[in-house]
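Running this now, will post back.
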Amino acid sequence: MSIRHEESVGLLNGTVSPTGFEKEPTPETKSTRGNTTIRWVTFLLCGFVLLDVVVYSYIAKLLLSDDSSHVELEYRNPYYGLDELYDPRFNLVQSSYHEPILNLPRLVGSVDRAQPLKLAPMEEHLQLTPYGRMAIPDHHLLLSENLNMVYQFRVIDFGMESCQLALRLPALDDKTLLDPYMFRGDNEQVLINVCELDTAGMIDLSKLSWSNRPPCKQLVGTFAAKPGSEVTLSQFPCELGSVQSFGLSCAPENSNCFIDVWSSQNQTWGKFAPDSRPIYQC
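Update: finished.
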């Protein structure tokens, strides 16, 4: 009885009994531990929020910034050593003749004199596919007294540094055309001036308009375009890796000038082409 009485007295006085029971934490101690936990959780949440703000701000800066530095990157020649191999001074290899290679434009855009601030149309041909609505790589040749065309090509083939421009138009009664085709000219002919544009790199089509189009550097020649025929201009030197830029406009000699035709990815209506002449075809 005396031992049990001593244990009871010890528990009532808050002392540790021989069985090893610990003292229960006071309310003040619990409150201090809770405040510390809340403080650390708050710090961690603020850190995560701050990190998210920094990351999203950086992504927004990348998306909204006008960084065109990639356009100025040097074009490195992938045909390393072929210059020496085909050098006529060494007579190592006799180059063979190759038929002209068709080079389709990398960029096609139209600008409107009557609306100088209007941007060039983009993705005019949208088609519903199993993967959703997609832009079909078709090119639109649209010429009139106010509408001019801008074409850009990249010279990409070794030994093809002699280029030529060509323009091919379908016949008016061509049944294979999927889009309306309109041609109006004097005596079924339209004179089209081709001008070399004063620009070295690729043009940003999303920002192209009449007001900021590249200026004409020099007149290359004039197409005498007729439906159902192909016309070409004189050959000219073109450096490997260079960007060739041209503008098309109705010649002042025309009293009536209008062409509206689409070229599909399987046809070459209205395209430019270079030569070994590669052929730049509009």
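Residues 15-21, 270-280 have pLDDT under 50 and may be disordered. More later if anyone needs it.
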